[in-house]
């Protein structure tokens, strides 16, 4: 068994971690979703990372809850007229193979070349339920990202961009740059998961060794205010803790948190210690 810090060599390895918990969830009799490809794309490394997950993320409750909330948000957005999904830093996501999507629906994934090559091999022979395209691109390169968006959005009118599990690995400057890049008329929505400063500090402490090579950075005191200042407004907000409690996935030691009313994310968050983590859908302008 590799040393804990060696299991996650870079941010891409966290995609295997998430897939491992999707596989665990899919095997439950009361599963919130079914992902028959999750164990394959997680691989031995993903299962090993999951085995070293800190108590704060017991059984991957937050990752499973996030997956379910984003599943539902994607389907809701398609019902509202979304004509394309751009999954940026898609990792080992397999939604095009498991969601009930129209066969003609355009879904575009983007990630680093090595990960895309590996994923293509792992899923060779599998048929997505929609019109799936997978693109190799370094999204951290502003010029490459701009070229990708130009090509991926050609013909789109109401696209949804998904950046699941991405932005807390970025700096505030990098998030600001990404937000500016996505402020395009073809993009109607941006879906992502966000954490405030209190969550980032707790998670960073709990995963010091596991995520030594992929540390968290982005976590303002008031995430929605941060995006509002960039002209992005939240029209959908689902708190992970409340949703996990509703789904019966919240660890027992966190249930006392549900005895108190959750913070209203639409009101300014001034406390740097009160934890807040949500799946959010943003609109621009």
Describe this structure in words.
This protein has 285 residues and is of the alpha/beta class. The chain has a single domain (61-284), classed as Rossmann fold (3-Layer(aba) Sandwich). It is 38% helix and 16% strand. The chain has eleven helices and seven strands. The chain has helices at 4-7, 13-26, 38-51, 61-79, 95-98, 113-122, 142-152, 172-181, 197-206, 223-228, 240-246, and strands at 84-88, 106-111, 131-136, 159-163, 187-195, 232-239, 277-284. Strand 1 (84-88), helix 5 and strand 2 form a beta-alpha-beta unit. Helix 2 (13-26) packs across helix 3 and helix 4 (61-79) packs across helix 11. The radius of gyration is 18 Å and the shape is globular.
Structural domain tally: 1
Can you write the helix and strand succession as a string?
HHHHEHEHEHEHEHHEHE
CA gyration radius, whole angstroms:
18 Å
The number of distinct β-strands equals 7
Main sheet properties: 7 strands, mixed
Q: Helix content range of the residues, please?
A: 25-40%
Strand content: 15-25%
Q: Taking strands numbered 1, 2, ... along the chain, how are they ordered across the largest sheet?
A: 3-2-1-4-5-7-6
Assigned CATH class: Alpha Beta
Q: Per CATH, which architecture?
A: 3-Layer(aba) Sandwich
User: Termini, distance in Å?
Assistant: 50 Å
* Oligomeric state of the chains in view: single chain
By CATH, the topology is Rossmann fold
**Residue-averaged pLDDT:** 93
State the CATH superfamily name.
Vaccinia Virus protein VP39
